[in-house]
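Q&A FORM
Asked by: J.P.
Topic: structure of Lipoprotein

PROVIDED:
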Amino acid sequence: MNGQPISGKSARRRGVRLGALATGALLLVLTACGGDPAKDDAGSGGTAGGQKTGAPDNAASQAVVTVLPKDGADSVATSGALKVTAEQGKLTTVTVADSKGSAVEGKISADGASWEPLAHLSGGTQYKVHAIAKDAEGRESAKDTTFTTLVPKNTFIGHYTPEAGTTVGVGMPVSINFTRGITDPEAVEKAIKVTAEPAVEIEGHWFGNDRLDFRPEEYWKAGTKVTVELNLDGVEGRPGVYGKQKKTYSFTIGRRQVSTVDASAKTMKVERDGQIIKTLPITAGAPSTTTYNGQMVISEKYKVTRMNGATVGFGGEYDIKDVPHAMRLSTSGTFVHGNYWAPKSTFGSQNVSHGCVGLSDTRGAGDSSTPAAWFFDRSIIGDVVIVKNSKDKEIKPENGLNGWNLSWSEWTA
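REPLIED BY: S.T.
REPLY: Here is the structure written out as tokens.
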């Protein structure tokens, strides 16, 4: 570079000017990035000192979750005691499960203020409750509690038919007989669920206070799978008496067989899947001991059994120790059975029984060629036997598994 060298004094002046320029540039940069503090505070709702007046992001939720019964409660009622509520917020999650992890189904109300179970709880069981609610700002509040239900001193169960895993006829209802008389049938019936594949409407009907049957409007379709859920554990069936049964089982409907007995013509036509496969000569009840009319369902089968008239109101009129191929149609003693003591000419020509439907047979049930053996071998529990044209009344629906004698409107009333 040409020119005279700069003296020390001149150099110092130039350095001061350069420093001043640099400082001014820095102030401009800082001012451009930071802006006007007063304007910034005013624009964000703050004060001139820069302090914010809104709630901090980590403020506690205003929602308050309450669980009844209280944490650690014991001997809690199985119905009506469990409830979860939220104040100043809405429930978003409620889970209740027993010690095995089985969940209790429940529902949060439309306004989110409460949750209640949709079914009763089991007796003598510990439950854990986990509930979450949100306040208006979306902040969550949670509560976890544990309680144990009462241990019942008095209990009942239901003896059911048909048995699990069996294949039965199209007329077979689900029939449950309770060991104690039920005074709250609605609670008990609500705890029992009967479903079918393919689906069909199924309704229950009470016979007295200790028997509940379920069936569809028409006979089951062949091949249907029926599932029964007994959730009776914890149900208060009568004051102070609780169910202790929790079981799910299934059974299958086999082929369709409906047999029609004409007491006047003295025949029985056996219909299988819509086709008459056999017409058998029979003997029905004698004029003084006629056979019930109506739809009846085979409920028991015995290759050989004893029949004593004294057990069904006929005194000592008969006591046959080896009646072959017997199938029960009523609780009161109506059977379809083999008869070896009447002449073969009786069948198809005379009605001579004490109310049963008789088929020709041999003693000992050892001849598979007889009409009685043929019918026995081709019948299963749940098959339907219809009796018509008998000079007797229609069988009562509770006399055996014979609810089909009620119309659908009577059944569901």
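FOLLOW-UP: Residues 1-55 have pLDDT under 50 and may be disordered.
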